[in-house]
């Protein structure tokens, strides 16, 4: 029975990875997040067959990658604290089949603190760039995007719908979140929502073969997302009052995955699944399209 449960949950995780536009290979890495000072990248590597994942820190100058000890066999979705001294992450002590909660890892003494312990499965944790707020996805009736005040313990759901909301990212002022939404009709939407939930705007929508996922907001307010139509992938930009603009296009056989913008979107840390099925992490210059390999 336990073996069947593990296999079913592992298959569900593989499906989520595919939703992140990664084709669900058995092993790989994803979810790059640049540190506030831009010198380090937090990301995670996973092994679905083993049901394990760990968080990595890669130094942009030296190129050295260090695995972090979290005390959890499944550690994913790292997000930086504003001061760069800690990370939030999603952890499951016994591996992928265990309960997923949000934790904070202090990088000075490597102490781990539980921020949620609800029994619900949670993912995609991110700290606001200023203030006490934390965002994550809770797999209850939704999945839905939630915010948590780390100082008061107040937690609330931003939008209670029958749709599937994933991948929240904060605006630079910490007052809004963008995330992708998949409706029951199969449309994908990029949502822009204030943290009080009062304003919920649709930035863009796609239907049919075209899908929009994994949004982020640049310092100047432009919103970026991964767009895919069949086997064609691109990174597109949505500027106020302007039509969607493709900024980066994947090479033949490639798929764009999770990414994190630097500054006004001049460069990006981007996970790319190559034609060989391997997932590599690159730093990409938006203007020229040139790539620097960070991790494979």
Task: Give structural notes.
The protein has 296 residues and is mainly beta. It is 6% helix and 52% strand. The protein has one helix and 24 strands. The chain has one helix at residues 2-19, and strands at residues 27-34, 40-47, 52-59, 65-67, 74-80, 86-92, 101-106, 112-114, 121-127, 133-139, 144-149, 155-157, 164-170, 176-182, 188-194, 200-206, 210-217, 223-229, 232-238, 245-249, 255-262, 267-273, 279-285, 291-295. The strands form six sheets. Strands 1-2-3-4 form a four-stranded antiparallel beta sheet, with no helix packed on it. The protein has a four-stranded antiparallel beta sheet with strand order 5-6-7-8, with no helix packed on it. A four-stranded antiparallel beta sheet has the order 9-10-11-12, with no helix packed on it. Strand 19 (232-238) and strand 20 form a beta hairpin. The longest helix is centred in the N-terminal third of the chain and has 18 residues, at 2-19. It is globular. It starts with a helix and ends with a strand. Residues 1-12 and 14-23 have low confidence and may be disordered.
């Amino acid at each position: 029975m336990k073996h069947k449960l593990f296999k079913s949950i592992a298959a569900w995780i593989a499906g989520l990875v595919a939703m992140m536009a990664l084709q669900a290979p058995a092993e790989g890495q994803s979810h790059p997040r640049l540190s506030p000072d831009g010198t380090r990248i937090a990301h995670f590597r996973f092994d679905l067959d083993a049901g394990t994942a760990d968080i990595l820190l890669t130094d942009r100058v030296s190129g050295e990658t260090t695995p972090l000890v979290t005390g959890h066999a499944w550690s994913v979705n790292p997000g930086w604290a504003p001061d760069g001294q800690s990370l939030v992450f999603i952890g499951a002590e016994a591996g992928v089949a265990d309960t997923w909660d949000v934790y904070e890892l202090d990088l000075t003494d490597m102490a781990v603190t539980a921020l949620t312990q609800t029994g619900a499965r949670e993912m995609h944790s991110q700290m606001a760039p200023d203030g006490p707020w934390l965002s994550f996805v809770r797999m209850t009736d939704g999945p839905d995007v939630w915010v948590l005040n780390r100082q008061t313990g107040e937690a609330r759901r931003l939008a209670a719908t029958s749709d599937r909301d994933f991948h929240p990212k904060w605006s630079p002022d910490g007052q809004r979140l963008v995330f992708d939404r998949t409706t029951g009709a199969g449309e994908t939407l990029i949502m822009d929502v204030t943290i009080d939930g009062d304003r919920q705007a649709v930035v863009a929508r796609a239907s049919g073969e075209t899908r929009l996922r994994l949004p982020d907001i640049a310092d100047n307010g432009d919103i970026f997302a991964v767009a895919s139509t069949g086997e064609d992938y691109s990174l597109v930009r949505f500027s106020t009052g302007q039509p969607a603009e493709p900024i980066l296009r994947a090479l033949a056989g490639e798929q764009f995955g999770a990414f994190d913008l630097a500054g006004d979107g001049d460069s990006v840390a981007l996970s790319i699944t190559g034609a060989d099925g391997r997932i590599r992490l690159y730093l990409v210059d938006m203007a020229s399209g040139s790539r620097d390999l960070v991790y494979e």
